[in-house]
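Supplementary Methods, section 5.1.

A reviewer requested that the exact input to the structure prediction be made available. We therefore reproduce it here, unchanged from the version used in the analyses.
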Amino acid sequence: MTRAGVVPPWRQVRPSPPLHRGASMAEQQPATCPECSRPISPEDTIVFGRRLLGHLDCRRPRVLSAEERILLVIYCRDHQVAECVRCTRRFHLREVASLDLGVRSYKCPWCHTDLTDSIRAHLYGCAMLPAEVRYRARAAREAARNLVKQSQQLRDAADLARREAEVTLHALRQTIRQSPSRRVG
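The structure derived from this sequence is encoded token-by-token as follows.
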């Protein structure tokens, strides 16, 4: 959803294609982003609204949300927010944030490892955030994760109901074919 509250047409959720007959529930694919057609993970940063569920940034599905970036600038700009597991160095936000060709990224300046997950982990545990802000940030992230999981459960339930309807319709057709024909008239 844009800031004006308008849902771009490419972000609207389209009905999923029917599964092949006999496909088990375990074989089903998770919800997919309508823009990039890649699976949406509960750890991805999503956009949502009425009939909408997709990646915030399809090129980088786990990108920091606008709210996370705002909290980092307000509460974490004066201390280290990321640790690179590859080169074991720690960094301030200003040392790792970059905007290349309009794409915001957070990479280690030494080895170029993506530090997004490290920054996010710091944010949700940072003692500099007021307790209420930290609580609400965690709750918002968890709610987004639950939305992804529940949307998949709803798709699974709808697919199961569709299969049950197909089976009962097939049984009705078989019964009609096998019943003695009667002439009306």
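Residues 131-178 form the longest helix (48 residues). These observations are discussed further in the main text.
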